Amino acid sequence: MRLTRYFLPVLKETPSEAQIVSHRLMLRAGMIKQASAGIYSWLPLGYKVLRRIEQIVHEEQIRAGHIPMLMPTIQSADLWRESGRYDDYGEEMLRIKDRHGRDMLFGPTNEELITDIFRGHVNSYKDLPLTLYHIQWKFRDEIRPRFGVMRGREFLMKDGYNFDLDKEAALHAYNRHLVSYLRSYERMGLQAIPMRADGGPIGGDYTHEFLVLAETGESEVFYDSEITDLKFGDRAVDYDSVPECQAVLEEFTSRYARTDETHDEAVFHEQVPEARRRTARGIEVGQIFYFGTKYSEAMGATVVGPDGQRSPVHMGSHGIGVSRLLGAIIEASHDDKGIIWPEGVTPFHCGIVNLKQGDAAADAACEGLYKALLAKGLEPLYDDRNERAGAKFATMDLIGLPWRMTVGPRGLEKGVVELTSRRTGESEELSPDAAIVRISQIYAQI
Amino acid sequence: MRLTRYFLPVLKETPSEAQIVSHRLMLRAGMIKQASAGIYSWLPLGYKVLRRIEQIVHEEQIRAGHIPMLMPTIQSADLWRESGRYDDYGEEMLRIKDRHGRDMLFGPTNEELITDIFRGHVNSYKDLPLTLYHIQWKFRDEIRPRFGVMRGREFLMKDGYNFDLDKEAALHAYNRHLVSYLRSYERMGLQAIPMRADGGPIGGDYTHEFLVLAETGESEVFYDSEITDLKFGDRAVDYDSVPECQAVLEEFTSRYARTDETHDEAVFHEQVPEARRRTARGIEVGQIFYFGTKYSEAMGATVVGPDGQRSPVHMGSHGIGVSRLLGAIIEASHDDKGIIWPEGVTPFHCGIVNLKQGDAAADAACEGLYKALLAKGLEPLYDDRNERAGAKFATMDLIGLPWRMTVGPRGLEKGVVELTSRRTGESEELSPDAAIVRISQIYAQI
């Protein structure tokens, strides 16, 4: 993309309404614009990152054998009356009457709807195991929306639902989700720690939240410092293998890690030596639940088992906060100049800064780099504006592309351009060809 | 995808509530399930087609230089009061009160919101031309939703908005949209004819609707039969070139083609020789508008021009009915056995039918074909169920994959599998390797 043909409305001033750094930077970098309280338009740059995150989530869910579909945003209240949650849910549910006066709602979650789909189509244990998921906009009418996309009212979430014959099979689905979530977050450049959590209104005894450590996190967390040394890495896990998935669960959840909701100071002291006890703040970016037959019993979602007997299926639900992740990543990865995108989610792979727009050699070199990157399947952002170098650098630093190529007449006389890492600030001089090779190699590993 | 691990709930019986063939086939093929009146869940197969159509729309909009972003579903009523449409819009607008009693609505379209974004960020003619678009769920509270996804209440639409300094530039944007729409529909295997249309509640003198001819179309259409000979093909059009885009507009819109809303019998007779006059029915799958300064004046969206004077921008809006296109494609492409997907939008590229599941040679050959197709970047659907051949064929015919490979012990003894076209029903025997090459070649041309 050439910046002169893009829509990147960066702000010079720091917006006064934004209390946390991710909200400030998303507004300043022209990623979002508030449409109304807690509801945002995703401007082109923000939308690109949202799509990258969504794509990672899709890829990892499909890898785990989970099946994508899509449920609508507007639901009938009738299903929620069946499960008993219509009255329970409180004012966070956005309730709507349609033109015929029927009670509808903007879905805050989808246990009822997916259970209705299941019971309408599945009848036998032979069709299990089954995990369906979707990535769809949800609405929760927060009384005080704040922190930008971190606690918005309209938000994008991946929610998946497993259907299994018995508890054992459902716990394997739980473990598959845990593994796929660890992989997903790492691909986004995040360390998200599974912590024992509270079931809340969805219910469930087995549940973990995934938390990203950040000073601005809304939850206080308590954990064994050994946990932060764990890496999922690029190990191959067979999602069909019960012991392999179970081993990952044990590795990542056996040490003490809890939010304030489940924290037990006595257990913490007993299990963790003092030198390894950590208290910090965390941002929740996902949660997995096993809740057994809570919805299948209430709604009659049963299957005939191998013994010919009909029984309610065992279910769980599993969510990733897709839009909230943008905020979480920025909270975890920024400096005083702006955002620092991890390579896995960056909106553009590389910036190109032309130090002297209009100079024939500089223009030609930038065009060459631009086309060479596109030919490698990478997306560059070429700052082709007639602006001072300082303004171009400031924009690139603010929007946080992990790599920048700087091209100017002086370097070109020596046959080099400058390649700079946004994270370390380190630069090196390379021939244009070598710079292209270097960038390709970096992204081939992502 | 292996069918035993997929969720494809095909129905044996024809659902009684469905009045038109696309609705019946989408229900029978397990593509959608009604969630409530006019609101559907997209089951895995339907979701895949929806995503393919969405992807074509994105690619062609980006090719035209239009910039993707995303606006939220829920909007504040305040902006609609500014434009004057809050009271005008009538009962089709889903009106909502949030917990604080503020008037909100589920967006049926986005002229107000995009104009608000524009006026908040753009100030100079130097930032023009600009076309922003998004693909987002809309809601129109139809009094009698029917025909499945063809006239649903919650529907997915691409809507794009151009901002230009003057009428001339805005009409070039109009032409760019016309070109990109012609390309998009052809890639989906559709002939969609631009017809002179009525502005309706969005307003505008320059507007064309794109109609797919089909007996079940809701509009009566009148046209010169020469129009159906026009093909966009794979010609290269420079979207920056005013004369090139204008030439396409003239080629595709100079002949008489109107819906009943704008039809003029006298003009029809005057312009079209009797032998070429056609009356038919059509399904609307898109519409483009130029409406000048209607919203920019009402909402104060102005720019400073080259002369230093401030003036309201010229705008247009341009829509493609993404979810409705599934219905339109099926109406235009089916037979009495089921759907016939055009290659450009098919949910899976090729079906694999194992005639004798459990036979070692047949199983091995199917596995080989399955992996070879995946290795070519294609998505096969392998029917690995323990079912009779007839049931497997019926499922494949119903869900409409354009190509099927049939694998059985007898063919394998001769070293062949059968490759069958869903559209023509013709089969040929090929070695497994040759079949893979043939399928790859077919899709390389799409």
TrEMBL record, chains A, B:
Would you name any one GO CC term? cytosol
- CDD domains, alphabetically? ProRS_anticodon_short, ProRS_core_prok
Predominant cellular place of this UniProt entry's protein: cytoplasm
Keywords recorded for this protein, A-Z? Aminoacyl-tRNA synthetase, ATP-binding, Cytoplasm, Ligase, Nucleotide-binding, Protein biosynthesis
Molecular function (GO) terms listed?
Answer: ATP binding; proline-tRNA ligase activity
Q: What is its EC number?
A: 6.1.1.15
Where the record annotates domain Aminoacyl-transfer RNA synthetases class-II family profile, the positions are 33-342
Which reaction equations make up its catalytic activity? tRNA(Pro) + L-proline + ATP = L-prolyl-tRNA(Pro) + AMP + diphosphate
Top EC class of this enzyme:
ligase
- Could you confirm whether the keyword Aminoacyl-tRNA synthetase appears in this record? yes
The record's subcellular location field reads:
Cytoplasm
**Which InterPro entries is this protein grouped with?**
aa-tRNA-synt_IIb (IPR002314), aa-tRNA-synth_II (IPR006195), aa-tRNA-synth_II/BPL/LPL (IPR045864), Anticodon-bd (IPR004154), Anticodon-bd_dom_sf (IPR036621), Pro-tRNA-ligase_IIa (IPR002316), Pro-tRNA_synthetase (IPR050062), Prolyl-tRNA_ligase_IIa_type2 (IPR023716)
A Gene Ontology annotation in the biological process aspect, one of them, is: prolyl-tRNA aminoacylation
Record Pfam families: HGTP_anticodon (PF03129), tRNA-synt_2b (PF00587)
* Keyword Transmembrane in annotation: no
**What protein family does this chain belong to?**
Belongs to the class-II aminoacyl-tRNA synthetase family. ProS type 2 subfamily.
Under the heading HAMAP family, the entry gives:
Pro_tRNA_synth_type2 (MF_01570)
Task: Relate the assembly described in the record.
Answer: Homodimer.
Function of the molecule: Catalyzes the attachment of proline to tRNA(Pro) in a two-step reaction: proline is first activated by ATP to form Pro-AMP and then transferred to the acceptor end of tRNA(Pro).
This protein's name: Proline--tRNA ligase
